[in-house]
């Protein structure tokens, strides 16, 4: 049974209406900014709703919640420990409830989403939730660390033991995932997505395979080399970076696909990109000031099968070493007028470098 409750005093709804309902499935409570009584939140008696699987609590987007009252209301809305999915939107309090950092209170939780809780400076001890597999955090600019608890010191107390998927978006002051980094943190994490978190530096995360970074900063570029199991990174949009840091590729030899997009000031690719012996698909797009590709080492890209160069208008030629890409099956050159001219079949100055490629697309 799925029940959606929208609090609106004009319509006569009240949290107390939930007290006698036998809830199951999903419960969506909106308009919590309108609740004026702590006792009303307690009367909802969510802690006794053992069949409730998913709970969504929303204050709205105005951010005008009275922080003290909002905190007490959220504290009173503690769900049963059987809850599997929890979402909190627009909460205006300074602190999230104590039950969120209690691994026995949320022992069954597998998914947590926190969005626009803009006044919160600290997150609860989420790393102690034993079954948490997916975590998403949006628009919390005062947060510095995803996990501040510094008491993890052994394998038995590994932070985030089950977390597989982590997304952080618009956390402009977040610096690290953990205040105190440990050897055994995030042992199950395989997918990491970062949007507009320019200060975030990445630790050693040996099992992360999929990485996407939007608004990638210099600091993040340097720390990406700590992720030595990457399979498919996507790096997007940085208007300050004109070259990648030296040695960035040293520990990324397992890459299968690599996409670099919207680095508008990037003038050259790192020479050590040619060390990526497992790379099969490389895409470089919307890098308007990119002037050249590495001259040497292309024979190292022995697995490269697809190369796409899109909207790189300053790229004037291909290096001679492209002739050594013997596994290359598909080459796409789009929105690169100078390069397109040089790669014309039979007549272009660079045609002899790519004549061995079965499929070449330079349609416009």
Structure description:
- Strand 2 (25-30), helix 1 and strand 3 (52-58) form a beta-alpha-beta unit.
- Helices cover 9% and strands 22% of the residues.
- The strands form 2 sheets. The protein has a 15-stranded parallel β-sheet. The protein has a two-stranded parallel ribbon with strand order 7-9.
- The radius of gyration is 25 Å and the shape is elongated.
- The chain is built from 5 helices and 17 strands.
- The chain has a domain at 238-364: Ribonuclease Inhibitor (Leucine-rich repeat, LRR (right-handed beta-alpha superhelix)), CATH 3.80.10.10.
- By secondary structure, the protein is mainly beta.
Q: CATH homologous superfamily of the domain at 238-364 - what is it?
A: Ribonuclease Inhibitor
Shape: elongated
Record the strand order, biggest sheet.
Answer: 1-2-3-4-5-6-8-10-11-12-13-14-15-16-17
State the low-pLDDT regions, or none. Answer: 7-11
Proper CATH architecture of the domain at 238-364: Alpha-Beta Horseshoe
CATH topology of the domain at 238-364: Leucine-rich repeat, LRR (right-handed beta-alpha superhelix)
What is the tally of helical segments? 5
Element pattern in H and E: EEHEHEEEEEEEEHEEEEEHHE
Largest sheet composition: 15 strands, parallel
**Overall radius of gyration:** 25 Å
Gap between N and C termini:
54 Å
Overall mean pLDDT = 86
């Amino acid at each position: 049974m799925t029940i959606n409750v929208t609090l609106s005093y004009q319509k006569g709804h009240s949290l107390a209406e939930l007290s006698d309902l036998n809830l199951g499935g999903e419960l969506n409570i909106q308009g919590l900014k309108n609740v004026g009584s702590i006792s009303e939140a307690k009367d909802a008696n969510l802690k006794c709703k053992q069949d409730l699987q998913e709970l969504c609590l929303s204050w709205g987007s105005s951010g005008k919640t009275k922080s003290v009252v909002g905190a007490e209301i959220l504290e009173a809305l503690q769900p049963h420990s059987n809850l599997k999915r929890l979402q909190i939107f627009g909460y205006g309090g300074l602190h999230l409830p104590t039950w969120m950092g209690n691994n026995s209170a949320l022992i069954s939780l597998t998914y947590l989403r926190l969005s626009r809780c803009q006044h919160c400076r600290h997150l609860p001890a989420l790393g102690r939730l034993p079954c948490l597999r997916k975590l998403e955090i949006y628009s919390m600019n005062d947060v510095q660390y995803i996990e501040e608890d510094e008491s993890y010191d052994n394998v038995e107390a590994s932070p985030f033991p089950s977390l597989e998927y982590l997304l952080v978006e618009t956390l402009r002051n977040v610096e690290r995932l953990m205040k105190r980094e440990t050897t055994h943190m995030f042992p199950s994490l395989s997918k990491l997505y970062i949007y507009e978190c320019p200060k975030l530096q990445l630790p050693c995360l040996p099992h992360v395979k999929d990485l996407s970074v939007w608004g990638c900063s210099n600091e993040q570029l340097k720390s990406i080399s700590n992720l030595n199991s990457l399979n498919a990174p996507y790096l997007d949009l940085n208007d300050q970076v004109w070259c990648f840091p030296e040695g960035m590729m040293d520990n990324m030899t397992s890459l299968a696909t690599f996409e670099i997009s919207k680095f508008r000031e990037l003038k050259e690719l790192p020479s050590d990109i040619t060390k990526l012996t497992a790379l099969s698909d490389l895409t470089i797009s919307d890098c308007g000031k990119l002037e050249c590709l590495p001259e040497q080492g292309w024979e190292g890209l022995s697995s490269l099968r697809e190369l796409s160069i899109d909207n790189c208008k300053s790229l004037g030629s291909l290096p001679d070493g492209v002739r050594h890409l013997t596994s290359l099956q598909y080459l796409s050159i789009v929105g690169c007028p100078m390069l397109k001219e040089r790669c014309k079949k039979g007549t272009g100055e660079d045609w002899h470098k790519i004549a061995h490629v079965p499929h070449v697309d330079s349609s416009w």
